[in-house]
Amino acid sequence: MRTQTATNVWARLEAFANDMRLDCGDFMYMGEHGDVSAYKHSGTRRYLHLKGPEAEPMAWIDGEFYPITDDEAVAHVLA
Question: Taking Cα atoms as reference points, which of 14, 12, 74, 9 lies closest to residue 44?
Answer without folding.
Answer: 74
